[in-house]
Amino acid sequence: MVNVFSEIAWLSVLAAFVPYFLLGALWFTLLFPTPYKVSLGRENNMPAKPAPIFIIGPAICCLVITIASAVLMYMLKIDSYEGALSFALTVGIGYLVANTVNIAINPNIPRPLLYGLISGAYHLVGIVIVCLILVALK
Asked: According to the model, what pLDDT value does residue 124 have?
């Protein structure tokens, strides 16, 4: 696995990370802000300006997901759009969506399925974008 790090086109990782992270900003603030707030039970109680951890934390997580995807795609020698899409859907549904829904199913999330749908869909769309960019710039 270590030798794959020298093969990775790191500019493609950066190029894939940026839209994934920016998609989150658009997804939760412009596209689905009300359903997201409802899923959290905070439709009337969200802070106007989020604390830095709510921006820096997701950025780091998106970067880690992007790097892990690049490592796996290089190890699996995925070099076609079809392969990238298949990988993205497998990882997206099998890990990102499933884990998001699993995290949502707890007493602190009043509408876990809505939360899982909104956040899981974001990660699924995001990982598809990441994988397509990674293969395009490989």
From this structure: 98
